[in-house]
Amino acid sequence: MEEAKTIMDYLPYLIPVFLLELGLAVFCLVDLARRNRTKGPKWMWAIIIIFGQLVGSLVYLLIGREE
What we know:
Helix content: over 70%
Shape: elongated
Number of strands: 0
Order of helices and strands: HHH
Structural class: mainly alpha
Largest sheet: none
Oligomer: single chain
Radius of gyration: 16 Å
Strand content: under 5%
Number of helices: 3
Distance between the termini: 53 Å
């Protein structure tokens, strides 16, 4: 029972982090859908963004977008 109490103590800190991560993923997916060209196929970047969580979104923003 003590373990569940410690998780609940961290919950107010985890919810904003989760919401920021979700918002970044949505932003990246919308950006991906609107772009005509990317460095690599769009389906690959969508998988990286969705399954790579925070790191996948950052990799897309830094490497995947073609100006």
